[in-house]
UniProtKB/TrEMBL annotation:
It comes from the Eukaryota. Coiled coil: none annotated. HAMAP family: MEMO1. InterPro entries: MEMO1_fam. Residues 1-24 are annotated as: Disordered. Belongs to the MEMO1 family. It holds the Pfam family Memo. This is AmmeMemoRadiSam system protein B. It comes from Kwoniella shivajii.
């Protein structure tokens, strides 16, 4: 299925150019020494979680979900995903992020030759990108769209840092818009051949709930219980004996406010609902359950479409595999930028999850 190109006609002539680190100096430090020190500090705080069988780096990790906000907000949470990556055996990274600034009906590829960071450039796998273009599924990003998009860029310093000066590392950035069912099906088939490569890793860029009137998102569970599978540093609490499924109000107001359930706890429960649905991505109807959750809660998970692409890929690869050969997600970090207590507050949630395939 041939998609129209959204790239400018000069893109092929500019294929060896470097994408500038346009968010350096604002969303993160443009000074290499300062940035490296910050990333090193964040990673040093990642510790094993015996209760979750998390002992980074995870040698059987195949993908991560990690946030993409400014590093002062999401950098510490993202470190938990990056610490899990088995860098010694990885040579190619597929980086999937949502399109924030330009409407995209499907999926698009970069036309740059490399991505710049204050810590050094990351070369793109231009051969793989050329092969992907030949499928007819992908369009091309304009350079301006590519450089405006932070969902891809915010992962680059972490990638360059953990892989140090490795010359054999390449990147395949994919901007995910709103692919239809047929494109999504074809995309799963195309990506499956790369999934089977042991030297290829997938990074899914996504923040979780963006709560507040400025995001046009104020859902509220007035009777939200503690999450049944608490993600650190959220502590596990015992569910009340009288537990009933919480009732969702689509728009918060003082009339529905419960003093025992501040807004941030409602957000926490809703985000954990989503994470719970992703824990077993290869199980029957996991994709449909995820889409139903998004439709019901309207949770503003900005990387929901890249996550959906990953779910579709896993469903395609593992649909006929026995249970003991199917991957599972372990969520190892959950944070909120601030704790909302009234309708004027706002926050963004940050999640790090590690997808592990059976050894």
């Amino acid at each position: 299925m041939k998609q129209p190109s959204i790239g400018d006609p000069r893109s092929r002539k500019m294929s060896h150019s470097v994408r500038e680190a346009t968010h350096a100096g604002s969303w993160y430090s443009a000074k290499a020494t300062e940035l490296s020190s910050q990333l090193k500090s964040n990673l040093s705080k990642v510790t094993p979680l015996p209760d979750l069988a998390f002992n980074p780096p995870e040698q059987n990790a195949k993908a991560v979900i990690a946030p993409h906000a400014g590093y002062s907000y999401s950098g510490p949470a993202a470190a938990w995903a990056y610490a899990s990556i088995p860098t010694d055996k990885i040579k190619r990274i597929f980086l999937l992020g949502p399109s924030h600034h330009s409407y995209l009906p499907g999926v698009a590829l970069s036309t740059f030759g490399s991505y710049g960071t204050p810590l050094g450039d990351i070369p793109l796998d231009t051969d793989t990108i050329a092969s992907l273009k030949q499928t007819g599924i992908f369009s091309e990003m304009k350079h301006s769209v590519d450089e405006d998009e932070h969902s891809l860029e915010m992962h680059l310093p972490y990638i360059r840092h953990i892989f140090k000066d490795r010359k054999d590392l390449t990147l395949v950035p994919i901007l995910v818009g709103h692919p239809n069912a047929q494109t999504s099906k074809e995309l799963s088939k195309v990506l499956a051949q790369y999934w089977s490569d042991e030297e290829t890793f997938f990074i899914i860029s996504s923040d979780f709930c963006h709560w507040g009137t400025r995001f046009s998102c104020t859902p509220y569970y007035h009777n939200a219980p503690p999450p049944p599978n608490a993600v650190p540093p959220v502590t596990q609490e015992t569910l009340p004996a009288s537990f009933e499924p919480p009732e969702l109000t689509k728009r918060f107001s003082s009339a529905v406010s419960n003093p025992d359930v501040p807004i941030w706890k409602s957000i926490q429960y809703m985000d954990h609902e989503g994470m719970d649905l992703l824990r077993y991505p290869a199980e029957f109807a996991a994709l449909e359950k995820w889409e139903a959750y998004l439709d019901e809660t309207k949770n503003t998970i900005c990387g929901r479409n890249p996550i959906t692409v990953l779910l579709g890929l896993i469903q395609h690869v593992y649909h006929d595999k026995p249970e003991d050969q199917k991957p599972t997600f372990t969520f190892v970090r959950y944070e909120q930028s601030s704790k909302c207590v009234n309708g004027k507050d706002s926050s963004v949630s940050y999640v790090s999850g590690v997808l592990k395939v059976p050894k």
